Amino acid sequence: MTSLIAQLITKKNETVINANLPPFLVNFLQAVTLPLVGILVFMLIWSAAANSIDTSLGKFPGPKAVSEQMVNLIQEHVESREKEQAFYERQEKRNAARIAKDPDYVPKIRAYTGKETFIDQIGTSLITVMSGFILAAVIAIPLGIAVGLSKPLNTAINPIIQVFKPVSPLAWLPLVTMVVSALYVSDDPLVAKSFLNSMITVTLCCLWPMVINTSVGVASLNYDWVNVSRVLRLPALKHVQKIVLPASIPAIFTGMRLSLGIAWMVLIAAEMLAQNPGLGKFVWDEFQNGSSQSLSRIMTAVIVIGIIGFLLDRSMLQLQKWLSWDKSSEVR
Amino acid sequence: MSVLLDISKIDMVFPTPKGDFTALKEVDLKINKGEFISLIGHSGCGKSTVLNVVAGLYQASKGGVILNGKHVTEPGPERAVVFQNHSLLPWLTAYQNVELAVDQVFAKTKSAAEKKEWIEHNLKLVHMDHAMHKRPDEISGGMKQRVGIARALAMQPEILLMDEPFGALDALTRAHMQDSLMEIQEELNNTVIMITHDVDEAVLLSDRIVMMTNGPAATIGEILDVELERPRDRLALAQDTRYNHYRSEVLTFLYEKQRKVESIEVKDKSKKAEKQDKTSDVA
After folding, report:
1. CATH class of B3-78+157-282
2. Considering the entire predicted model, what is its pTM?
């Protein structure tokens, strides 16, 4: 065992594949095969474990059940789209026929009201998380800059931030729900209340890491750059725009990445409780449904949630690479 | 020659938790237009503090700085600073770094085309026209400092303040930069205050060398007029008796008259003073 560990440690930076291949090929094989091996081992352990767990809804879903369910869910989506298409075609025909009979008839157009499919719900979740996240960024970044620039403001606001930062999103949710239903009264609402509830909950949880990181980035501004700005007598607004903002871009992005990760986790929980159509609701509905397929559908959702979270983080990283001047900043 | 800058009996006192720390005491100096002044002294003696007071980044506790008959109360582009560690903005290219200064100083007096020409002219002056559109992390330390000088020159300052501009460079690059600076000086005949640790640099570049005593309560010890005709050539001067005389004058001041006798306790204190200097920098 110790020799195995020793081998792993020393081989950290060496190649495992030692064949007489050109180095780039070895690197490529290593980059592809090692993760594959990892996934394979995980799958084996997973299916072995799944086989030995019995629940009241049948066996715990293994990789096979999940892959079947994945195909199933996509198929359901395609079928639902076909149904929708057919519905609109029927409606159009019917209306055309009635107009032909009676030219004064004003056709009624009704929207298709089928159940949202898994794919639709992914879309809804993404829209909700991005809206909440963007709303948080719009509030947090200017606030963070102000807090970073002004020590008195920092001293005044810091306790509030520190108290609200560790609050679980689910504690916010009932309050948000009540406030939204009290204040957001409209006969023809632009967006559903449930959407607002989960969005605002996401915003409340995204806010703090962004405020903290932005303000730390601004406060730790290189003093030489401030002196440059002072010698040039840059006006306050130009100082923020030309010096403070670009200098704190790396810190702002760190905060945004942290926030987006939190947002995605919070969203699923918020959707479960707020009954906002989305992945969280999908999981909850399947749980309540309790059919023999439910567990494998939930497991599929779990994996999809993970993959989307990973992709969100990667896209944020890519955005950071494009926008940040600091190419040397640790990108992980 | 007319007096351009009057550093009039300035004291600098930094408040510390253990009571006030007097960094400078009655520093008094008049500088003529077109003069090249070097400030030399041991580290921690307050050279940078003098420069920062002239720049307006610090306010003197007593006395004041008068530029062209006007009391200096805040920093401004007519007193351009070349900082020790170049302090270029890393997210801007060399051109954009100079542009930031030019846009600010000549916002109303130059058209867009004139500004562009002026930026390029200044970068050419420091021989950086080939790497105008590179970012600071893509060019060497010497090149960064060149851009820093170009940025300062582009402000068309009445006085150029340089805080150990070549301190962070290797000896060969430093010599090269000194030659470039002399070349530029010949063309523009700027008024310059430069802080340096390097005796050769001081003698080679300056019209007057201002030698400062050790702190605390540092002040001007001696002023040495360097009457070597320009243009100066470092190779020819190496054999010159007058040059060597000036050199030994400065060395005598630094290592005999103002020799740093540092017992461990004193060293500790001066370090604390330095620290204090730095924290007040940050504050």
Report:
1. alpha beta
2. 0.78
